[in-house]
Amino acid sequence: MLTLNFPSFPVLETERLLLREHALTDADTLFAMRTNENVMRFIDRERPKTTQDIETFISTFNEGFKQGQHLAWVIALKENPAQMIGSIGYWRTNLANYRAEIGYMLHPNYWRKGIISEALNKTIAFGFSEMKLHTIQANINPGNDASRQILLKHGFVKEAYFKEDYYFNGQFLDSEIYSLLK
Question: For the N-acetyltransferase domain, which residue ranges apply (predicted)?
């Protein structure tokens, strides 16, 4: 069975980006993103009510990394590594089957600049080489064409379309599943 046991949080670098661990100092920025309707338009998750909710989320998530359950990075520009502009990471790890779901979000000021593509290249490579994943999966809202296109660009293949398989905000929503094999 796969284990996610790193001695310290793996910081990744690309040409423009630093992918680092979430810190409590990111709470205000993450709260702003997770309450921004443009950012969350296709992310069907509860919105935080307070910055404290986000601080709890960050602490819980960082503890989950220490327990080998998931791994997520803050996306920051190298020129300003303290300023979070997005996040990317692996959630819903299925250790028995060497699978993890990848997810990402980015502040609208940085959309259409190739940042998610750059971050995906690095995290996909890390997922296969360092985490030893066999499959990386993505679950998207079918209305999110931008996410669909970035996944296809990176070699993901559509595996499924589920009708009304997810209940959120009083309604049943559809899901599209994409995956990439090692």
Answer: 17-174
C-alpha to C-alpha distances, 25 to 30, 58, 135, 157, nearest whole angstrom: 9, 10, 32, 36
Where do the structural domains in the chain lie, given as residue ranges? 12-181
Name the nearest CA neighbour of 119 among 8, 4, 9, 13.
13
User: What HEC string does 89-132 produce?
Assistant: EEEEEEHHHCEEEEEEEECHHHCCCCHHHHHHHHHHHHHHHCCC
12-181 carries CATH number 3.40.1190.10: no
Digitized pLDDT (tens) for each residue of the chain, 182 residues in all: 888 889 999 999 999 999 999 999 999 999 999 999 999 999 988 999 999 999 999 999 899 999 999 899 999 999 999 999 999 999 989 999 999 999 999 999 999 999 999 999 999 999 999 999 999 999 999 999 999 999 999 999 999 999 999 899 899 999 999 999 99
CA 61, 17, 158, 134 dihedral sign is negative
Report the alpha-carbon distance of residue 164 to residue 96 in Å, rounded.
27
